[in-house]
Amino acid sequence: MIEGSGKTALVTGADRGFGLFIVRGLAQRGWCVFAGRVLKEYDHLDKLASEYPNVHPVWLDVSRVEDIEKARDEIEITAGRLDLLVSNAAHMGGPAPSTLGGEDPIDYSALEQDFMINSMAGILLVDRMLPLLEKGEMKRLHFTSSEISSLRLMTRTGSVRYAMTKTALNLGVRMLFNELRPKGYTFRLYQPGGMNQVLPDGSYRRTTKAVDPVESAASAVEQMLTDRIDEDRLALVDYHGRELSF
């Protein structure tokens, strides 16, 4: 397990649930954590920052280049480097899932937004944060993917937007891996499972067979802070530690 003393991480999509618990897990291990927020109705990060002085909430809408660059500048001034980038922010598609035909046709403006947040932002984050990552010792990149990103395993219908964007994310991560792995970067492509949603008051919106985000985040932190013997191979791994086809 890689210790956190003196190390710095950026976690996007950290307002609640899975992302928030990743921030907490890293902070508990002594990491300086910059936590990206975008949901004004949630104050969980503020409470976490009051408990852990090494947690630094930053406004970060990953669909906005200017927000990413502002966060980069704040990290540079405060910490001077970045050891771990956790690209976790995602848009799930809103109240009307994209289905073919019928009363709820595909919303192509929403599809564009989903691609920006779920697919392109991860690549853009690495591009803009690269000068800080180059100064870091760890050079580790984590991307939160999904089991529905797998072409081989996909058997569902509906939810076209989210599935398409996560498949595109995987390909983008593959291209980053091809370029950056020879330069010493290591990668974590993680499938967190369908999780119970955390509401503004801290309660859960529970669904059948959903995963507890606390447990999934604990597994993610364990995986991102533990070296693998096969770092030269990109793998999609779930919260049980099982490798999935993608």
Can you describe what's shown?
With 246 residues, this protein is an alpha/beta fold. The protein has a single domain, classed as NAD(P)-binding Rossmann-like Domain (Rossmann fold), CATH 3.40.50.720. It is 39% helix and 16% strand. It contains 6 helices and 10 strands. The strands form 2 sheets. Strands 3-2-1-4-5-6-9-10 form an 8-stranded mixed sheet, sandwiched between helices. Strands 7-8 form a two-stranded antiparallel ribbon. Strand 7 and strand 8 (204-205) form a beta hairpin.
List keywords for this structure.
16% strand, Rossmann fold, 8-stranded mixed sheet, alpha/beta, two-stranded antiparallel ribbon, globular, 246 residues
Number of helices: 6
**Which CATH top level class fits?**
Alpha Beta
In CATH terms, the superfamily is: NAD(P)-binding Rossmann-like Domain
**N-to-C order of helices and strands:** EHEHEHEHEHEEEHEE
Poorly predicted spans? none
CATH topology description:
Rossmann fold
CA-atom Rg in angstroms: 17 Å
The percentage of residues in β strands lies in 15-25%
Whole-number mean pLDDT: 87
CATH architecture: 3-Layer(aba) Sandwich
For the biggest sheet, the summary is: 8 strands, mixed
Q: Roughly what percent helix? A: 25-40%
Intertermini distance = 27 Å
Got a strand count? 10
Overall 3D geometry? globular
The total number of structural domains is: 1
Strand order of the largest sheet: 3-2-1-4-5-6-9-10
| Helix-strand makeup class | alpha/beta
